[in-house]
Amino acid sequence: MYGCGGKNIYMAVEPMHHHKIIGRELHTFSSVASTNSIALQMAQAGAPEGVTIIADEQTGGRGRLGRVWQSPPGVNLYMSVILRPALSASDAPRVTITAGVAVAEALTRFCPGDVSIKWPNDVLLKGRKVSGILSEMKTGEHGTIDFVIVGIGVNINSDGDCLGPALCHSAISLKEVLLHEVSRAEVTNEVIMSFDTWYNILISRGFNDVRKQWRSRCAMMGKEVTIRDGDTTFTGVAEDIDMTGALILDAQTSNSRHVISGEIIITGECICC
Ligand code: BTN
């Protein structure tokens, strides 16, 4: 049995039967180390695709590149979804890109005109990070995917100072832009609905529609960016993402390269202008 006996503290977020996959089974918790860790255990124990874990607080929230994801209680969204797409493991980044498109679409309903995507999968609000996505995968036989856990964090009602001094200039919440609190249940429902729609597009029609949508929401397309990958940094004009989710720099030149890992370093005040 894969259930973990989650307590339902998100009363307004009920499993919705019009959800084809994501959110059709919800497990909600008041406090966990990391929703990704709970989802990982449940997936290992055989939980089906679509099982979604939400917590009110994380005491060990994980970010990309070994970072901590600040997860104060009662204010933000911390959610992980178990997916079992019939894709090869090398195409798993498509699922994360799809989640980024979905979160950007959902948040645009609250802050039209202010939301953009930063490669590989940060969602920005007025040029500052409002959401991050951490995907963790277990491969199956012959290069297939057994499961992917897609972990999504969205800063909804946190104040800059509660995310700590390191983040208060680079991170932002919906509340800080809208100047009023936003219902976490409403944001959660929008994210789930949007992710369900885009994931169904990905598995039924392939990656092209998702990729097109990602490109149109990415703030960096056509701009010069600097990328840090470990100890190396390099610069180029961001042109597109390829079918594996890699960022294409300087497409038409002899310096053209496809970047599969690293992060864009933001110089100047605001990357969206
Ligand atoms: C990033 O570094 O941008 C990714 C952050 C991902 C945070 C989410 S919150 C829900 C899930 N559980 C975790 O421990 N991390 C992800």
SSE topology:
Blueprint: E1 25-32, H1 35-44, E2 51-58, E3 77-83, H2 93-108, E4 115-118, E5 122-125, E6 128-139, E7 145-154, H3 174-178, H4 184-205, H5 208-217, E8 224-229, E9 232-241, E10 247-249, E11 257-259, E12 263-265
Parallel strand pairs: 1-2
Antiparallel strand pairs: 2-3, 3-7, 4-5, 5-6, 6-7, 8-9, 8-12, 9-10, 10-11
Helix pairs in contact: 2-4, 2-5
The structure holds biotin.
Biotin (BTN) is lined by residues 34-36, 58, 61-64, 67, 69, 78-80, 122, 132-134, 151-153.
Question: What does this 3D model show about the protein?
Answer:
The protein has 273 residues and is an alpha+beta fold. The protein has two domains: 26-217, BirA Bifunctional Protein, domain 2 (2-Layer Sandwich); 224-266, Roll (SH3 type barrels). Helix content is 23%, strand content 29%. The protein contains five helices and twelve strands. A seven-stranded mixed sheet has the order 1-2-3-7-6-5-4, with helices on both faces. Strand 6 and strand 7 (145-154) form a beta hairpin. Biotin binds at residues 34-36, 58, 61-64, 67, 69, 78-80, 122, 132-134, 151-153.
Q: CATH architecture of the largest domain, please?
A: 2-Layer Sandwich
Helix content: 10-25%
CATH topology of the largest domain: BirA Bifunctional Protein, domain 2
According to DSSP, the number of beta strands is 12
Spell the H/E element sequence: EHEEHEEEEHHHEEEEE
In whole angstroms, the N-to-C terminal distance is: 50 Å
Average pLDDT for all residues: 89
